[in-house]
What we know:
Elements (H helix, E strand, L loop, with lengths): L9 E4 L3 H12 L4 E4 L15 E2 L6 H21 L10 E5 L2 H16 L5 E3 L1 H7 L10 E5 L3 E2 L2 H14 L3 E3 L4 E7 L2 E7 L2 E4 L3 E3 L5 H6 L8 E3 L2 E5 L11 E4 L4 E6 L2 E6 L25 H12 L10 E6 L2 E3 L6 E4 L6 E5 L5 H18 L21 H13 L23 H6 L2 E6 L2 E7 L20 H13 L1 E5 L4 E6 L3 H8 L11 E7 L5 E11 L2 E6 L4 H10 L8 E4 L4 E7 L3 H8 L14 E6 L2 E7 L7 E7 L3 H12 L4 E3 L2 H11 L34 H9 L7 E8 L10 E4 L2 E12 L4 E9 L6 H6 L2 E5 L2 E8 L8 H5 L1
Parallel strand pairs: 1-2, 1-12, 2-8, 4-15, 12-21, 24-34
Antiparallel strand pairs: 3-7, 4-6, 5-6, 9-10, 10-11, 13-19, 14-17, 14-18, 15-16, 16-17, 20-21, 22-23, 24-30, 25-28, 25-29, 26-27, 27-28, 30-33, 31-32, 32-33, 35-38, 35-40, 36-37, 36-39, 37-38, 39-40
Helix pairs in contact: 1-5, 1-8, 2-5, 2-8, 11-16, 14-15
Amino acid sequence: xxxxxxxxxAVIVGGGIVGCSTxxxxxxxxxxxxxxxxxxxxxxxxFHAAGLVGQxxxxxNITQLLGYSVxxxxxxxxxxxxxxxxxxxxxxxxxxxEERWTEVxxxxxxxxxxxxxxxxxxxxxxxxxxxxxxxxxxxxAAYLPTDGQANPSDxxxxxxxxxxxxxxxxxxxxxxxxxxxxxxxxxxxxxDKGRIDTPxxxxxxxxxxxxxxxxxxxNVPLVPMEHQYMVTERIEGVPANLPTLRDPDRLxxxxxxxxxxxxxxxxxxPIPWATSGIPQGFHYTLLDSNFDHFxxxxxxxxxxxxxxxxxxxxxxxxxxxxxxxxxxxxxxxxPELKNFFVGAGFNAFGIAxxxxxxxxxxxxxxxxxxxxxxxxxxxRRFGRPHFDDDWIRTRTVxxxxxxxxxxxxxxxxxxxxxxxKSPLYDTLKAEGAVFGEKLGWERPNWYADTSAGxxxxxxYTFERPNWHAPVGREHKAAREAAVLFDQxxxxxxxxxxxxxxxxxxxxxxxxxxxxxxxxxxTQMLNDKGGIECDLTCVRVAEDEYYIVTGTGYxxxxxxxxSKNIPDGMNAQLFDVTSxxxxxxxxxxxxxxxxxxxxxxxxxxxxFPFGRAKTIGIAGCPVNALRVTYVGELxxxxxxxxxxxxxxxxxxxxxxxxxxLINAGYRAIETLRxxxxxxxxxxxxGTDHTPDEAGLGWAVKMKKNxxxxxxxxxxxxxxxxxxxxxxxxxxxxxxxxxxxxxRETIYRNGERVGxxxxxxxxxxxxxxxxxxxxxxxxxxxxxxxLSGEYELEVATVRVPCTVSLAPLYDPKxxxxxx
Length: 817
């Protein structure tokens, strides 16, 4: 091919809606982009997508991304001259029982907090918008006027034309046979038409992405699943502007198509596809219709839309789509290979996400970071269990089956468990532990007193859950006696080498050039001053640091630190998570207990706050860190895993006279909310600076030490109030008000933000929320504290009190003395 390119700034592999959207946006940014599609555009999974475009998700930035799709689809036809089939006909969501109605009202509050006009309707009002449905069992409905639907193939072709208009080159019938990588650097791609030299590859290959990425050592956790929907002949009474309809209690969705209906859904027993690999030559291909499997959805739909019983059926479309273990799509630069980007795993809402996902991925490629915090979709949210095909498939089947089930607060997955276990797992289970799971790790959430008849399991509800009182018991012990947390799942790294201090000084915002034995709490910032990591570093030697971060951020934080070690510096990062167990001893009696099990002096003079040293317990060398995340005197005890059961037993024997009990992660949450400790990524993240989060004290601006993000922090401080557009605050309200997060914050009657995390303060007897107070004209302490505040909870506004100080602050001698 004489016109086949030899070079490109970036090569996109895959010509579905996400690949074409990425090409469209990158080309508009002036990039020399080549898109390669092995067959025809849309021939993978895009061509058979249902095409519903809904916007609301539980995360504000994912909602913003979907809203961008809507804005783009509104103008794309005019820009390119190609029809897209886009129509903003609105979207309805039904509730058919009181718990679902509570969920819908909470979703409406979330929508309001994100600036979406979600309206609550009576059953009759909903029926007026959707006259074909029966409403005998409907309690209420939510209506989002800016939702809609599109023709997937048409909108993709329009994006492709827009990309070509901006200079992108698109080649169909061109197969990428390999990616050329030399010493960890992408050099180009080989195709059946020739080679293209390029430093950047963007994999938008739909359900083929996992296999393609594996060829260069990149892990993309997704699974092809069968997904069916029915297309009817014309039905009398179906208007062209009929809103899309989601009926989660009947597991089904509907949209208008050529005077008929499309009806599909998410059955509880989905069927994984291509478990031994996708067949060769699979393109523009559908699977055989499985009427027996679809019958369960058909029966549910007849109770909602009786007209379907006599409607002619054009076809039953069975098109495999890629789904992920958590139901969110996958974007970003692969942690395993620099400049290899992924946009895949769209869980049957690729059309809704396509416009925004392409925009975000293009900015990620061009600018080195996404336009805003996209952690729920970030490829680095995955970890070790996600390398195993069987584990991924098991979890993904569960996630698919829960697509329309109730989204309970604090709900845990059940599948693929247990996977990763602390050495104490069986011991703690026998003592009443109810476990949650994060990145495959089993973690005690709370402890049931089975002798008192407490069930050793989570019972989900929108009211106070069955673990409320047990967590209160653990919370009280932490405040008045002592508790022991098993936090073995912490991600733990070792940074070693003669340049370890210099490298970490560049990456960390706080001063890590401290003496051996120092413990440093620090953020790590991006160039905008946003918080990429929030962790603890211990200087264990002149040339070594021990770094501790959250369980779920193991891949992300390892990737951030390793990729930000300046070129030429001799420092290496190692993941040592599996080598160490962690027992956190917290509470006013913690010192008395610890002193009983060690000969080392743990008095405040010998072992002050913010220090770490090795002490002996029951024959074990324990790396003891004097730190707290619950606001009480405490130590994290890091020890080789083989000693865990011995040290655990010694601590409990010594603590028996001091009221020591086991406690779980849900108590940590209630305790840290009272103390005002922040959590990444809910309260702090890549869109928030330390100053906005009230963490400016942990930034080394007074020292002449360069670090990433310093210029952004300096500029924000120089601008004063004008540089601060938001500030994190705590809020309290009546203890009978149940907060679960994402409630809307009002100041003097105007919406100023939403709740980032929430819970109940057992010591203060009130419900607690944290969230940012926003003002485009600037925010300072006086602005925040001078307002009258309300929280919108399930569409009801309740008064609340704002605070920039800890809601409960134990006497300092209990923490630092």
